[in-house]
Amino acid sequence: MKKSVVLILTLVMVILLAACGTNNNAGTTNEGTTSSEKTTIIITNGKGEIAAQWEQAAKDFMAVNPDIIVEAHTQAVGDTLSIVDKLTASGKTVTLAMVAPDTVNGKYKDFGIDLSGEAWITETDNAFSNEEGMVVGFPFSIEGLGLVYNKTVVEKAVGGEFDPFSINTRDKLVALLDQIKASGVEYPVAYQTEGWSVANHFSTQFLNQNDEPSQTVSQIKSGELKLADNATWNGYYDTLDVLVSKDYNKYGERPIGVYYDDAHVSVGNGTSAMLFNGNWAYDSLQAVAGEEFGFIPVPVDNDPENPLNNKIVAGPTNLLVINKKATAEQQAAAKKFLDWIVFDEAGQNFLVNESQVISAFKNNPNKVANPLGAAIASAVEQGKTADFALNYTVAEDWSTKLAPEVQKYVAQKLTRAELATFIENYFKSFN
């Protein structure tokens, strides 16, 4: 009898110890893996200036999703090595990554899952598709560009309220510049001609002549589109010629130089009226004066009905992409985080009020505080935007390979025909 009792007690102890061991294992998670209780995901932020906001967003999301653990990582400002690449190299699986749109069809073309069926797509016109037409990118931030103008200077010149979208031909732009000169502003334009400006941003606008910029890219690669004979491509350079000319540009005598800071001071304090830039320029302008600023579309020709003359360029400059190598549970958790940004009041607040990001989503009631951001948001709402065409090219190449040639053109050291041939050959090199 005693032996039986001892045997039973021994069996009970073995079962209890085994159960304890099982519970301990279930309560732990390896990085990027899931447990029976919680799912752990890693999310990365490429905008170093909103690191604190990103961390807080993760905490706020976890507060309403206690079954999900979020590890939030941010790339340091100025760090050229992607935080996604750093974590991946260390053996971690990033579940949700913030990447530049042009990398979706390049460096990270095999990264993202299909997001075509997500509910948030109905709230935006900026869901980003890859070359196969599959939606893979959640538009985290919208940015835009055009002719940034000082409202005080322009309204003084025109004698009252000014509608920037009334400048929908090149001739109307020239007439406005003449009015500004007549009001006492010697040089209405302060055009900073750094490579990223004249190449990356200005010189990619012609890609919007088709419904999708990628169509134009394909036509150049195939040789179907000849730039020297293309009215839209030539039209943008006709407008650029006006903007950098000695008649209107503060730096017209020596158009190539490092003028960024001086250009913003000039437009900020009203000694010039406009420059070509994006909503990110507001901090530089605001540092000079608290004036109000807005955007004028860049006219491509003298047809007021041309849609390109009635729009400013705007689109996603940062995408959130879900890693196809993450587990199904992790992917589902990442989708919840995206829904939280779009549909939850706290997520909407994080995006716009805390991060000062222009929302791509129509249902977000919040508005960015700075006037250039507000102008972009208003244009998005009114359908007065063309695609951020740079997203459909290799952005780095426009800075390093193409920018020097565009600058030579601006300095009149390269003919337009030579520039056309150079750009065509660049695109054909991908065939």
What's a quick, concise take on this entry?
With 431 residues, this protein is an alpha+beta fold. Helix content is 42%, strand content 13%.
Shape: globular
Largest sheet: 7 strands, mixed
Averaged pLDDT: 90
Q: Uncertain spans, ≥5 residues at pLDDT below 50? A: 1-35
Q: What is the CA–CA distance across the termini? A: 87 Å
Secondary-structure-derived class: alpha+beta
Protein traits:
D-Maltodextrin-Binding Protein, domain 2, alpha+beta, 431 residues, disordered N terminus, two-stranded parallel sheet
Write the layout of secondary structure elements.
Blueprint: H1 2-26, E1 39-45, H2 51-64, E2 68-74, H3 83-89, E3 96-99, E4 128-129, E5 135-150, H4 151-158, H5 170-182, H6 195-202, H7 213-222, H8 231-243, H9 260-269, E6 274-278, H10 282-286, E7 293-296, E8 312-322, H11 328-343, H12 345-354, H13 371-381, E9 385-386, H14 395-410, H15 416-428
Helix pairs in contact: 2-12, 4-5, 6-14, 7-15, 11-12, 14-15
